[in-house]
Amino acid sequence: MAGYESKTATQMPNNLEAFFMPFTANRQFKKAPRMMVGAEDMHYVAADGRKVLDGTAGLWCVNAGHARPKIVKAVQDQVAKLDYAPNFQMGHPLPFELASRLAAMMPEDLDHVFFANSGSEAVDTALKMAIAYHRARGEGHRTRLIGRERGYHGVGFGGISVGGISGNRKQFGAMLPGVDHLPHTHDRSKQAFTRGEPEWGAHLADDLEKLCALHDPSTIAAVIVEPVAGSTGVLIPPKGYLKRLREICSKHGILLIFDEVITGFGRLGKGFATDYFGVVPDLITCAKGITNGTIPMGAVILRKGIYDAFMNGPENMIELFHGYTYSGHPVACAAALATLDTYAEEGLFERSAELHGYWEDAAHSLKDHPHVVDIRNLGLVAAVELDPLAGKPTARAYDAFVKCFERGLLIRYTADIIALSPPLICGKGHIDEIFGTLGDVLKEAA
């Protein structure tokens, strides 16, 4: 690939010990490290010079592909022009422009944007907003938050409290008080090998009525769900499930939050999952694809009525005592604006939609491979669930992950589920390579 020589000149570090790696088996990795030293379009470059096809868009974030020229130039130019400016009682033009661009992508009155630096921060921001909104309206008794089993909402204390992945919670003691959880929507005995949205399971939304009866709906501030639960292993919502959640929340005056950190920016062939499913929440959290993973950024997009509820009292008073040093960072905003331009100019959301049928067929071609017990897909996302090795959970999927990397393919795994979510610039040849390589690895699996 042109230009890779300069990108791969980075030397391997001579000491791996100091870096405490996130979500990683540190000791295992440091014995046999897998290092990336370059990237362009659909590929990474490994430290040994091999091209590695990115089957996961980094961590669900590099939706437009790697090192895209317009985004690179925007970042370079912005660093030289205005590297940092505060947004506390000051401002600079870019977050205002970006907020307007994002609001224009939204349905109905989702027309205000608050910037954070990650999906985790966006989630904690949305939860705080929900509680503060009800207080501003004179309903301060609405403090309870409802998440969902197997949900992932980042790693802040708010996010892990409403989240439902036990491994993300059990090391950290008590969570936030006043949190409950809906059941997750996946039942393999009724949904295995479904293409797209399962027919079974919409009734599980009615468990929200049970929680309302248990706690009194007037105490509940918000319900937060991922439209498609990604990090837990790609759980697709049953047909009608999200619509039913919306109806129940509206009935009881509860805010509905969609965590679209993964589903935002074209992953389902639309701008956001709210467009794909035709269900409009009260707040949306997003990150990852907002800047194509180039610079950290997150955001909360909220309805006008929520914003307006804070715009009371003396005009010289701060309306929401919340924010981050890097909220609306100039370089992140520049990256985001160039990313939105790239999506639009190259028609990447539409390109994603055009590939969905081919992607689905390729994913389900692995149905009869050894150890495959389920395949799930929606948009340009798929999961291949494997039967775990007896007494060795995650071992089979981890082995597939390593062998795929050795053969030039990056996949993700969680438990014994392999997750795939390529950049939206992928073509049919890339899809063939992803599932061909994974299929060959599975055929050889113990």
What's this model, at a glance?
One of its GO terms (molecular function) is adenosylmethionine-8-amino-7-oxononanoate transaminase activity. The chain is 36% helix and 16% strand. With 446 residues, the chain is an alpha/beta fold.
Q: Which fold does the CATH topology of the largest domain refer to?
A: Aspartate Aminotransferase, domain 2
CATH class of the largest domain: Alpha Beta
Total discrete domains: 2
C-alpha geometry = globular
Q: What's the tally of helices?
A: 16
Largest sheet: 7 strands, mixed
In round numbers, the mean pLDDT is 96
The whole-angstrom Rg is 22 Å
Total number of beta strands? 15
Category from helices, strands and their pairing: alpha/beta
- Bin the helical content: 25-40%
CATH architectural group of the largest domain: 3-Layer(aba) Sandwich
**Strand-residue proportion:** 15-25%
Ends: how far apart? 35 Å
Give the uncertain stretches in residue-range form. Answer: 1-9
Say what oligomer this is.
single chain
Strand sequence of the main sheet, in spatial order? 4-10-9-8-7-5-6
CATH superfamily of the largest domain: Type I PLP-dependent aspartate aminotransferase-like (Major domain)
GO molecular function: adenosylmethionine-8-amino-7-oxononanoate transaminase activity; pyridoxal phosphate binding
Organism: Stella humosa
Cofactor: pyridoxal 5'-phosphate
Pfam families: Aminotran_3
